[in-house]
Amino acid sequence: MAVEQLRSDGHEVRVSDLYAMGWKAHADAADFGAVTETNFMLASGEAFENGSLSADIRAEQEKLLWADTVLLHFPLWWFAMPAILKGWVDRVFTCGFAYGAGGSAIPRYGDGVLAGRRAMLVVAVGGREPAYSDRGINGPVADLLFPIHHGILYYPGMDVLPPFVVHGAIRVDDERFGRIADNLRKRLGELEHTEPIGYRRQAGGDYDRGLRLESGREEPGTTGFGLHIAS
Amino acid sequence: MAVEQLRSDGHEVRVSDLYAMGWKAHADAADFGAVTETNFMLASGEAFENGSLSADIRAEQEKLLWADTVLLHFPLWWFAMPAILKGWVDRVFTCGFAYGAGGSAIPRYGDGVLAGRRAMLVVAVGGREPAYSDRGINGPVADLLFPIHHGILYYPGMDVLPPFVVHGAIRVDDERFGRIADNLRKRLGELEHTEPIGYRRQAGGDYDRGLRLESGREEPGTTGFGLHIAS
Question: What domain of life (chains A, B) (predicted)?
Fold first, then answer.
């Protein structure tokens, strides 16, 4: 549905259906080809640099570079991505591509290899909205998604749009499905004009040398993940 | 090291080394054997009930029931579990075992199949501690671990001990490794006497029918995930 809508709006779309592709979920040294490094992280960086990453990983990196907008569709399982999608991140976001090792110069949090691109999550959540609200027992859905939004998508430079979250996804009748689909089509039609979440750039002067937010930068009373949203 | 220490303290230890086991990370219908349900979640519940879950999953469920304490050791990758461990959760914590479908009567958050057991994370974090502190750019490590602590371990009833977190794990020389190992041995020696994180039981009367925390239950100024800790 999303793909049809995007194509009818004139977008080119490339789909990575991880289950259909038989995506290998676990990262291991077989991903790297012939490398000399024995440290796992550095070996992934060496494989990136020398082009010996496995073909499935290189293809996904190339798709990310090709895209102007990246949509991740998934059900929230145990308050996080399903393993197969986490494995897409673990394997594709290699050292040298998405992050630098130690003191290396790859910028991050608002800058990086994917800067200039937009990203949006489309997430199906089994439980009802109140249980994921500010005082909900599962935690606020915005906080549950922060490690993905900020830690995975914004980290290598993507602007992150507010997510499209479907609550109560355990049971969706045809009538509600129709409304959800209409709302998603509307969001897809507005992708280029939607205001991203206003995360603070690491290089923007808000953080000290220990990468702590300088005091006084936030609205009084703001704590936790919310500190890293400037506006 | 942890295993040796626990055994020398008189504990019986069973280890699930997911990489060594060739653990299948992605959940799919092949996990369920012969079932009639077509809904994925309900099919996992049917497979649990009729004993047709794949043997690797049944073995892990049996280990969880056998244990009085569960330790999960992993490196934090992209601010979450590595895919192979997330796949252990996705596949082992089936419907009917760890959670009920819809209105079913399986209690959760402090009660459940694993009640009476203790759990502790042993987590290696690449970056330095200030970047994971209250104002750190990556978010507070306690908040990053909340979906695991509360959403995965406490959900089916386990008491969750404060985590053992090693920061700066990218580079650990022998001298620091020795200190880390000593600290971990100390924590392992205190497992039975360590105070768990004081999460609120769902059945404890703190939540309304929408599973929102009743107003006035928290210390003034507490927000987000912290609301769900009573003490």
Answer: Bacteria
